[in-house]
Amino acid sequence: MKFKALDAPAFVYIIKTISEFMDEGAIVSTNDGIRINGIDPSRVVFLDIFLPAGYFENYESKDKEVIGINLEDLSSILARVKKDDALSFETDGSNLKIIIEGSFQRIFSLPLLSMEEQKNPSLNLEFPFKAKMLTVTFSDVMDGLADLGDTLVVSSEGGKLYLSVEGDMGESKVELSTDNGALLEASGNDAKSTYGMEYVLNTTKMRKASDTMELYFGSQIPLKLHYELPQGGYGEFYIAPRVE
Predict the structure, then answer these.
(1) CA–CA separation, 125 vs 221, rounded Å?
(2) Which residues contact residue 154 at a Cβ distance below 8 angstroms, ignoring those fewer than 6 apart?
(3) CB 87 within 8 A of CB 97
(4) 62 vs 46: CA distance, rounded Å
(5) How far apart are CA 244 and CA 148, in angstroms?
């Protein structure tokens, strides 16, 4: 496996987002691209990230290669990447080599872990409500609600999406709709469910890599957040509802 990121800062934030949920992960590379998926230790979040070969400036892979990596350590190394740096990866025996090139070249090696490819859980869900918006819109709303409570209430009514939180300071509620320009698209039925604020907020680091996102939900079913990435890539997060 060998590849060079076309947008180094964006790739860094994708890895940073994944590391918020998992300390270790299996990177599966095929001729089609790279996939990372898994379930967080609390078993609240399932994530599925796909970066197609076209997402990278250069990309080489065997038919299929599975490598395990410590995502926390990888994220720590990638924190050194600056805006205009070039970022490359390649497997070298039992190590993953990370090459950061800017005003000078830095080479890091991480030991590969013995891990198997994660099997996707069966998620045959029908979502009563769907909304599409700019990723920065969703991120800004979540930033504004994050300090007010640890439970996010997601509801829909009359084609509008509401994100709200209740805390010691009272209730804060944000209305998002196509009428006020916050949503690009919206469709579905009325519904209401609650989710852990921290889990939802941690997905918004994808804003550095994603321009648009889609939100799917229904009453007492998982919240699906689909972050669109260039060249058909995506980052999907399924967050289990809180039991009221």
Answers:
(1) 8
(2) 161, 162, 163, 192, 193, 194, 195, 215, 217, 223
(3) no
(4) 27
(5) 19
Buried b (16+ CB within 10 A) or exposed e, 197-229: bebbbbbbbbbbbbebbbbbbbeebbbbbbbbb
Binned at pLDDT 50, 70 and 90, residue 236 comes out as very high
3-state secondary structure of 21: coil
Domains and CATH numbers, the chain: 2-111 (3.70.10.10), 129-239 (3.70.10.10)
- Indicate the pairing of strand 95-101 with strand 86-92: antiparallel
Provide the 3-class DSSP secondary structure of residue 107.
Answer: strand
pTM of the model: 0.95
Please state, in angstroms and rounded to a whole number, the distance separating the CA atoms of residues 57 and 137.
29
- Helices and strands per DSSP (H, E), number in the chain: 4, 18
Helices (H), the chain: 8-19, 71-78, 135-145, 197-203
Smallest Cα–Cα separation from 235: which of 221, 243, 225, 220? 225
Q: Is the pLDDT of residue 244 over 70?
A: no
Region 77-93 average pLDDT = 95
